[in-house]
Design a protein that fits this description.
Blueprint lengths: L3 H12 L3 H6 L1 H23 L10 H4 L20 E5 L10 E6 L4 E7 L4 H13 L1 H8 L2 H7 L22 H4 L4 E7 L1 H4 L4 H22 L3
Antiparallel strand pairs: 1-2, 2-3, 3-4
Amino acid sequence: MLHKSTIDFLKKLKKNNNRDWFGRNKKLYEDAKYDFEVFVFELIQKISGYDESISGLEPKDCLFRIYKDVRFSKDKSPYKTNLGASINPGGRKASTAGYYVHIDPSEYFLGSGLYMPMPDTLLAVRNRIASEFKAFKKIVDNKDFRRVYGKLWSGDTLKTAPKGFEKDHPALEYLKLRSFIAGHTVKEEKVLSKNYADYTAKVFKTVKPLNDFLNNAIGI
């Protein structure tokens, strides 16, 4: 389970996003990071029970740094005000479909799938959706998938069919996507509950068929 002190730290950081405050409160950050690492470790063990592709991962393979790269950003605040982990084959740096945990007092989010893949990966996924649309549609129209995730996140989509695909293809609404993300938001009370790791693992189990489809498309 995650502790309230971790959420409290993120709330304080959002109000004091500067190096002086962070330096004086480094212990609060270290405690929050450790709390999140323990949670991610527990989650990896639970997911490994039904998805062997992430077996053997460690939290350090999955956690994102709290320090921001502000070189090309208008917002020069030095720290992220969330904790995030990408639990997928190869860890956070791999371009594979997996499971993402986002802890932010303004939005607690569980996500799965592929976010803005490189052009060759995107083309491979589109080709498989086009050629195996019946199987893909069965996954995203599954009643449990719909209940937990609703529809795939549309995000930044093309206005027309991508090059090389028919404009009247039955899968067109999915072929226009640039990301293939299933998202599930959670309330803070659930995040702080004792069974949040169990709940998260259950939510992710529902989306495993989508991740399998996407990873098979790119040869994983």
